[in-house]
Amino acid sequence: MDKVTSFLKDSWEEVQHNVTWPKFGDLQSSSTLVLIASLIFALLVGGIDFLFENALNLFYQSF
């Protein structure tokens, strides 16, 4: 149990004193970039799905 306690104390000290945390503005800009990229990707996949669905419907209706 002493090893676990020592590990947790050392880990907490590492997080408090040696980790460089990003500024809030950097996190905001990164989050905005991820949100925009996700929306563009979702629209692209949705558009491709729409095109394939309509193309297959036209193909199946021709028989």
UniProtKB/TrEMBL annotation:
GO terms for molecular function: protein transmembrane transporter activity. InterPro entries: SecE_bac, SecE_sf, Translocase_SecE/Sec61-g. Pfam families: SecE (PF00584). Keywords: Cell membrane, Membrane, Protein transport, Translocation, Transmembrane, Transmembrane helix, Transport. GO terms for biological process: intracellular protein transmembrane transport; protein secretion; protein targeting; protein transport by the Sec complex. One of its GO terms (cellular component) is plasma membrane. The keyword Cell division does not apply. Gene3D superfamilies: Preprotein translocase secy subunit. It is found in: Cell membrane; Membrane. Essential subunit of the Sec protein translocation channel SecYEG. Clamps together the 2 halves of SecY. May contact the channel plug during translocation. Belongs to the SecE/SEC61-gamma family. This is Protein translocase subunit SecE. It comes from Larkinella knui. The gene is secE.
